[in-house]
């Protein structure tokens, strides 16, 4: 039996999750979980893998989104299914607690886990901040994304009464974006230092910041000083910071040509 196992193992390439695979003495089988490794040929396709659209899941998510909109028409403003078969529900800021409670407790939802809570800053919008709640239903193995919005001065109701995990998430959003959450038991900074001014994830916050910390060997302690740039003016003649990297450049055929522009020549 051991010889047969050795012969079969020689035909495949295996990689152990925790180090090299060692056969259990006398058992004739691996002592750790092994994963098969597939060797790609030289001409293998290296294009990125895109998840194919699942029409059945898309219809089910659309039906459930319409059901949520019918149950809570006062708060739900838009329902959509993304290209990756993920349901997104856009709600009014006043509906944070009712909608999250419904999705957590309803029999057909059971989204009892708040896996993430984040924000997006779009300064060109009147309500520049988009608050995003990512929920997970272990009962139905499904995810849903709830979005709402606010501005710099209007607070959002804290979701701690629905999900305890929202405590530190909301503190992080307050620290990084400056979005105030009403009725939060301990809303204070969580990542930046004491006395930090501003909110680093806002688009109008400078990348260099306002203050730099360094260790002063003369006074034998860390000191805070205003940022000093050796180069006062920097000109970036790029449409995107990623244009400097050829791998991330947009292919010429996908560029939108304005009237009078010539078609990009193939290189």
Automatic annotation (TrEMBL):
Gene3D superfamilies: NADH:ubiquinone oxidoreductase, 30kDa subunit. Residues 90-210 form the NADH:ubiquinone oxidoreductase 30kDa subunit domain. One of its GO terms (molecular function) is NADH dehydrogenase (ubiquinone) activity. It is found in: Mitochondrion. One of its GO terms (biological process) is mitochondrial electron transport, NADH to ubiquinone. The keyword DNA damage does not apply. It is an enzyme of class 7 (translocase). Its EC number is 7.1.1.2. It catalyses: a ubiquinone + NADH + 5 H(+)(in) = a ubiquinol + NAD(+) + 4 H(+)(out). Keywords: NAD, Translocase, Transport, Ubiquinone. GO terms for cellular component: mitochondrial inner membrane; nuclear body; respiratory chain complex I. It holds the Pfam family Complex1_30kDa. It comes from the Eukaryota. PANTHER family: NADH DEHYDROGENASE [UBIQUINONE] IRON-SULFUR PROTEIN 3, MITOCHONDRIAL (PTHR10884:SF14), NADH DEHYDROGENASE UBIQUINONE IRON-SULFUR PROTEIN 3 (PTHR10884). Core subunit of respiratory chain NADH dehydrogenase (Complex I) which is composed of 45 different subunits. Interacts with NDUFAF3. Interacts with RAB5IF. Found in subcomplexes containing subunits NDUFS2, MT-ND1 and NDUFA13. Core subunit of the mitochondrial membrane respiratory chain NADH dehydrogenase (Complex I) which catalyzes electron transfer from NADH through the respiratory chain, using ubiquinone as an electron acceptor. Essential for the catalytic activity and assembly of complex I. Belongs to the complex I 30 kDa subunit family. This is NADH dehydrogenase [ubiquinone] iron-sulfur protein 3, mitochondrial. It comes from Rhinopithecus bieti (Black snub-nosed monkey). The lineage of its organism: Eukaryota, Metazoa, Chordata, Craniata, Vertebrata. The gene is NDUFS3.
């Amino acid at each position: 039996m051991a010889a047969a196992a050795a012969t079969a193992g020689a035909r495949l390439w295996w990689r152990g999750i925790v180090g090299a695979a060692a056969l259990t003495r006398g058992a004739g089988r691996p002592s750790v979980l092994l994963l098969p490794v597939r060797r790609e040929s030289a001409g293998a396709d290296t294009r990125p893998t895109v998840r194919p659209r699942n029409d059945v899941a898309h219809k089910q998510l659309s039906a459930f989104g319409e059901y949520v909109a019918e149950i809570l028409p006062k708060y739900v403003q838009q329902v959509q299914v993304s290209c990756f078969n993920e349901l997104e529900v856009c709600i009014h800021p006043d509906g944070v607690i009712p909608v999250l409670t419904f999705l957590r407790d309803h029999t057909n939802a059971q989204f009892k886990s708040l896996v993430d809570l984040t924000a997006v800053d779009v300064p060109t919008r009147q309500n520049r901040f988009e608050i995003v709640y990512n929920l997970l239903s272990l009962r139905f193995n499904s995810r849903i994304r709830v979005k709402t919005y606010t501005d710099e001065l209007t607070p959002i109701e804290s979701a701690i009464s629905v999900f305890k995990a929202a405590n530190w998430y909301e503190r992080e959003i307050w620290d990084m974006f400056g979005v105030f959450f009403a009725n939060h038991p301990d809303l204070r900074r969580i990542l930046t230092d004491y006395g930090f001014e501003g909110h680093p994830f806002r688009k109008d916050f400078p990348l260099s910041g306002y203050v730099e910390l360094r260790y002063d060997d003369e006074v034998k302690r860390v000191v805070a000083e205003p940022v000093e740039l050796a180069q006062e003016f920097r000109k970036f003649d790029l449409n995107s910071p990623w244009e400097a990297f050829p791998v991330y450049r947009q292919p010429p055929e996908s560029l939108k040509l304005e009237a009078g522009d010539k078609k990009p020549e193939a290189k």
